[in-house]
Design brief:
Elements lengths: L10 H5 L8 H4 L7 H21 L2 H13 L1 E2 L2 E5 L5 E3 L5 E3 L5 H13 L4 E6 L4 H22 L3 H11 L2 E8 L5 E5 L2 E2 L5 E2 L2 E5 L2 E7 L4 E2 L10 E9 H7 L4 H5 L10 H4 L12 E9 L9 E6 L2 E6 L9 E4 L15 H24 L3 E3 L8 H6 L13 E3 L8 H16 L16 H14 L1 H25 L4 E6 L5 E6 L7 E7 L8 H11 L5 H13 L7 H19 L12 H16 L6 H19 L3 H6 L19 H11 L73 H7 L1
Antiparallel strand pairs: 1-2, 3-4, 5-22, 6-11, 6-17, 7-10, 8-9, 12-13, 13-14, 14-15, 15-16, 18-19, 20-21
Helix pairs in contact: 5-7, 5-15, 6-15, 6-18, 11-13, 16-17, 18-19, 18-20, 19-20
């Protein structure tokens, strides 16, 4: 580890006034201190962070945003203001009628920002087949781990970012978590041999905790990636003792005073919650790998007790991923756009309360009665008949105080401001404007709302990529036992596969694919449907859908990619001669042969051509040729390979190739009548293939067609070709004689 006490000051530092070497507090980097000195330094950083947050008004704003999101009163978080009608005033004469719109807008924004579940792709440096194939394995591991362990926290992180200005997750490795695996543990025998033995062992797994702004202490003026941070978490005292039994006495001797920066203290909830004496605040101090601390640092503290001290567990950065879609300029303090809605929400609450108060006070009908009449209030109340003087006025209803005429306009203005500030509209909120009857217009409004959230979508993308990088680092470092990963199999049916951390080696970078924004609007989905509906092949249709919506060509190019990887591997083995290369009858020679020949030409162009490699390539290409000529037409059609030419019988193939045999079988069942006007010439009478002119079989059947000749159709039922002897197919099975009835043919068998 780098020791700052032995470092010499540079000339630039001396010019700027380097600290006095005798003063250890200024010549030693605080992050390299140990013991109680490190604990004191971390407390000083906490004080500085929360003092800055208080001076900027963030502590008060966190409470206000927390209250607005949950429908509470900021002055008293016990008061549920939006869940029930309240009464205020000295004599509780005033009604309070609040409607929580901030929470609805915040959750809608978070939903649009997160979109669909993330799909990760691993990036490798090399383009050889091994690296490319390993990248696909890493994709399965990464997506399976993220879906199982990390995805459940995405919504909470997005909600914290949208309401409080920042959200994140703290990732650690649980050595007793994960699946129970059967691990080999051979037992040595006295004779030197080993006895196979297996033990049950936990695979380990990552686990996350959500980190809110008051739990994440960091530099407030940091630029770029954070160099250090302190994660404050509430944990069980007894669970901590179980993890560090050697420090039990020190942990129990810590005086349990009031934590000034605990959630309950910051939000003035000390008198609302019963103190849990089993909970303690454990601090996780991380320092990224850098020139000052090459291996980084990870220290766990409880008060001034150092529970653990070691290197940073991740290769890059720290095991903390933050989603911070907005910041105060020149700071790393988060800013949430929802905060701009709170004042509008308060104005709406005031207007609603005043309006309801007016109706509650003067809503009951008042009756005006002229004095001196015989009308009594009891008579009016009872609804009975009554008299009033001739020519006098009858009792009339009196509206003492009316709602101001401008009140509806004011309410409409305030609600419009909520949409304008948040970037939402009626369509995106699921409440389409009845005045807009065009479906395309509604879809356009929805797309506009999605586009407005692009900055939050980018923040979510950065957060997820960082989470993926942390996962890869954690698995690579701590996953000593094989582990199960849930992957998608045939027909998207999930199954589990076993992997090890060696499957992650060689991965340099992680990127992410997310669903296209067009799929979040009606017009976009309709357009995709119109594009793929006309594709007949289901597999091609599914691949086209994935390509259009995500830009991912994996499914669309799966077959071509697999073929390309196979050819690359074959070329490497043919050049090096490390292992033999075989040819499959279904290999497409139109794809293999040109690339093999290109590799041969590349060797020939070198100053010292490898003769053995050239011979291996020539032999392999000859095998491709022979395998292709012997390819069944049925398999050729299945794999969309142009059928090989018909090869008549010869020394190397006494019965001809499969195409020739199939044509012979078809021609023997064809009608013998000569061609009539306008009829096609039977292919069995065409020219010969590449193997020579067609040779009639010994049994007198018709000749074979040419290389490009069409295969004759099957003979019609009834058997007009009488007298044709019984023959066998290429497998030796006897074929029925069309001149015999089915029962006689069966008897002849």
């Amino acid at each position: 580890m780098f020791d700052a006490t032995n470092a010499e000051a540079t000339g630039e530092e001396l010019e700027q006034g380097a600290p006095n070497p005798e003063d250890d507090s200024t010549t030693t980097y605080w992050a390299t201190l140990t013991g109680s000195d490190l604990a004191s330094a971390i407390e000083d950083k906490e004080d500085a962070y929360f003092e800055t947050a208080r001076n900027r008004g963030l502590l008060a704003l966190w409470v206000i945003a927390y209250a607005a999101h949950h429908g509470l009163t900021p002055e008293d978080l016990r008061d549920f203001a939006t869940q029930q009608i309240g009464f205020q005033g000295n004599e509780l004469e005033l009604l309070r009628f609040h409607i929580n719109l901030v929470r609805s807008y915040a959750r809608q924004q978070t939903t649009l920002a997160l979109g669909e579940d993330a799909a990760f792709k691993a990036m490798v440096v090399n383009s050889d087949h091994r690296s490319q194939a390993k990248a696909e394995i890493v994709d399965r591991i990464l997506n399976g781990f993220y879906k199982r362990y990390c995805a459940p926290f995405d919504e909470k992180v997005g909600e914290s970012d949208g309401v409080l200005g920042e959200g994140g997750t703290h990732t650690r490795w649980d050595f007793v978590g994960g699946d129970t695996m059967k691990v080999p543990q051979p037992i040595p025998m006295p004779d030197g041999t080993q006895l196979d033995h297996y033990v049950q062992k936990k695979s380990g797994a990552p686990y996350d905790t959500v980190v809110y702004p008051w739990c994440h202490v960091h530099e407030t003026r940091a630029s770029g990636e954070e160099l250090w941070c302190v994660i404050r978490e509430s944990e069980s005292k007894w669970n901590t003792i179980a993890q560090f039994p050697q420090l039990k006495e020190q942990i129990l001797n810590v005086s349990t005073g009031i934590d000034r920066y605990d959630f309950g203290t910051l939000f003035r909830l000390e008198d609302l919650e019963i103190a849990n004496k089993d909970l303690i605040t454990v601090k996780h101090f991380y320092h990224a790998r850098c020139a000052a601390i090459p291996e980084g640092r990870y220290t766990i503290l409880y008060a001034d007790v150092i529970l653990y001290d070691g290197p940073c567990p991740t290769k890059r950065g720290m095991p903390f991923a933050a989603m911070r879609s907005g910041e105060f300029i020149e700071t790393s303090l988060g800013y949430a756009d929802v905060w701009d809605l709170i004042a509008v929400q308060q104005a709406i609450n005031q207007v609603n309360s005043d309006e309801l108060q007016n109706y509650a006070t003067f809503g009951r009908q008042s009756i005006g009665i002229e004095k001196g009449t015989e009308v009594t209030i009891d008579a009016i109340a009872k609804g009975t008949a009554f008299y009033f003087p001739q020519g006098g006025k009858s009792p009339q209803a009196v509206q003492l105080v009316a709602v101001p005429e401008t009140l509806p306009d004011l309410k409409q203005y305030l609600h419009k401001q909520l949409d304008t500030i948040s970037g939402q509209n009626a369509a995106s909120r699921g409440d389409p404007d009845p005045n807009v009857r065009s479906g395309e217009m509604q879809a356009l409004n929805h797309s506009i709302a999605i586009s407005y959230q692009s900055f939050r979508q980018k923040a979510a993308r950065r957060y997820r990529i960082r989470k993926a990088e942390i996962l890869v680092d954690m698995i690579d470092r701590y996953a000593e036992t094989p582990f199960f990963v849930e992957v998608a199999g045939v027909e998207q049916r999930s199954y589990v596969a076993k992997y090890t951390r060696e499957d992650l080696s060689g991965i340099e970078r992680i990127t992410i694919d997310q669903v296209s924004p067009m799929m979040q609007s009606i017009a976009g989905r309709l357009q995709v449907y119109q594009q793929v509906a006309g594709i007949q092949d289901p597999s091609e249709r599914a691949a086209a859908y994935e390509f259009i919506t995500t830009g991912n060509t994996t499914a669309f190019m799966a077959q071509d990619r697999a073929t390309d990887l196979c050819i690359r591997r074959e070329n490497e083995d043919l050049v090096t001669g490390e292992r033999p290369v075989s040819v499959n009858a279904c290999d497409d020679p139109y794809k293999h042969m040109p690339k093999h020949f290109a590799q041969r030409q590349l060797i020939m162009a070198s100053d010292n051509p490898d003769v053995e490699a050239i011979k291996r390539i020539d032999d392999h290409m000859l095998e491709h040729q022979n395998a292709y000529l012997g390819l069944s037409p049925v398999l050729a059609a299945m794999f969309q390979i142009p059928p090989p030419p018909a090869i008549p019988p010869g020394p190397s193939a006494p019965q001809g190739n499969p195409v020739w045999q199939l044509q012979m079988m078809g021609s023997m069942g064809a009608p013998q009548a000569g061609p009539t006007s306008g009829s096609a010439q039977p292919s069995g009478q065409g020219g010969g293939g590449t193997g020579g002119p067609p040779q009639p079989p010994a049994n007198g059947g018709g000749g074979g067609g040419g290389a490009n000749g069409a295969t004759p159709q099957a003979p019609p039922a009834g058997g007009e070709n009488r007298g044709v002897p019984r023959v066998t197919d290429p497998t030796g099975t006897k074929l029925p004689n069309p001149s015999q009835p089915p029962n006689q043919a069966a008897a002849g068998q």
